[in-house]
Amino acid sequence: MPNFNKLVFLATKLASDNGVTIQELLRDESLGYNSRSSIYQDFRNLEISFGLTPYNTEENRGKSGREAVYRIDKDEWNKFKSGFLTKTFSGKERRRLAFMLESIGSLSPLVNVSTDDIIPKLNSIIGDISIDTAKFGGYFNLETTKFLDILLEAQETKELLYITYGGDRRDLFVIKCFVFSGGTYCYVMDIKGKSYMLSVQRIEYVERKLLKNNIPYPTPDVDIDKALSDPFGIVRENEEFDAVVKLSDGQGYYEKEKLWPDSVNIEKEDDHWLFKVHTCGEYWLIRWVLSLGTEAELLEPQWLRDKIKEEINSLAVIYQ
């Protein structure tokens, strides 16, 4: 049985600017392909379930089967997503599905915001297909899901909400809800346009204003598209910087196959790779480099390299 998440993630890769090769799909552990035939079968599933046809590109001349680049038309993919969401779904279901589609196509897992009646409706549109959802345990409970529904609606309608967070109750507009590193977050702003980033799991209460307000929707002080294109920085208070990470040959191939945003550039050198990123995410970049052990070395900037050295020295003291 075809898997919805897998097909959406595959379509996202195929619709990227560079397309994707069979070799890259086979090496991507998150997709779990073990043969070319299994990939070609999902190409057929994309055509049957989504009406999208992967195609060879002109650059394939003279290349072997595994090195051939495949794509789908990006406009057709966007048209499918927008048209797909208008079919038979209520407003709440449509907003939840749009949120799910975004989280599948990012580096984050799919949030479990589906309901019992959504999956049968999906099956009626795209056929008999399995759908995986990631659960957040007690942190993502029914109350939090209810808050997310209100936040997603307010994001669409530009409605002003009362949001209680950290003991403070404030009037806030919702700019964007999104998933990052297993957590669910939202950018909000006050009536003057000053933006804040909140963890949805830590929101204490959300309520609608009983009376219609005449407060105009302000211009946010954050570029949301730019903010969400940073794979390491969801907190915008930090200053942006350029970083270069040296990756081992094997790790570089693995990272190259991931669906990184445009702010990342990965270049092949003689016996290693250079991972270049423009980011404001000091904390998450340090954690990522350390998680790769000897497979990664931060080369630039020097001040961040010094911080990583301090982290390693602190760990050495703990484990003496």
From TrEMBL:
Transmembrane segments: none annotated. Pfam families: WCX. This is WYL domain-containing protein. InterPro entries: CBASS_pafABC_assoc_protein, WCX_dom. Residues 241-315 form the WCX domain.
